[in-house]
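Batch manifest, entry 17 of 40.
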Amino acid sequence: MKRSQINRIIRDAETCMAANGIRLPPFATWSKEDFSSRNQQLDRFRAAQLGWDITDYGKERFEETGLVLFTLRNASPEERDQGTGCKYAEKIMISGKDQVCPMHFHESKTEDIIVRGDVPLAVRLYHANPNGELDQQTPVEVYCDGVARTVAAGDVVVLQSGESITLTPRIYHAFWGEGGACLVGEVSTVNDDHTDNYFVDPMGRFPNIEEDEAPYRFLVGDYAGL
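Output type: structure tokens
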């Protein structure tokens, strides 16, 4: 992805969030100087990967396969394993019209996906079989707003504004906005995007960036260079 494209995506995301009453924390707009002045305090911040995260999953087709994420709360994998730090994570995400977050599952994370705006979210579901492949036969039981619901393998659950779905480990899921850009909240156990995403088709989680202009906001992948 070009940095200019990422900058435009973030500006659009900020507009969408503001229009829906989402207020981001101060670190959402930190400059390089802000990061530098806090450098000695930011080890946990960087390890938890808080902040902006734009991905095209290495496909170079963001409008078709991609996601906007902003991580508000999290802990590092080390804190998770040691039982220290946060025990939870929270994200704000934007899934564009027909823009697919590809089919994947998590081994350790349990998450609630919550529609925070007016546009519905479509979620396709499968179980992972013991080999980590799509189980095309077994029905999937999930909880929608605390109520058990069983769907056939590969069925789509459409969540309306305010509705949510709970996804436990090894439930494959892909999702997209139905008819427009969908504003989504996620609350979960500690999130590790480096090691706990298992995709049906192998792909990258973080984008390769062509630096054609200066960053408007820094991504979590930029922190190592700050």
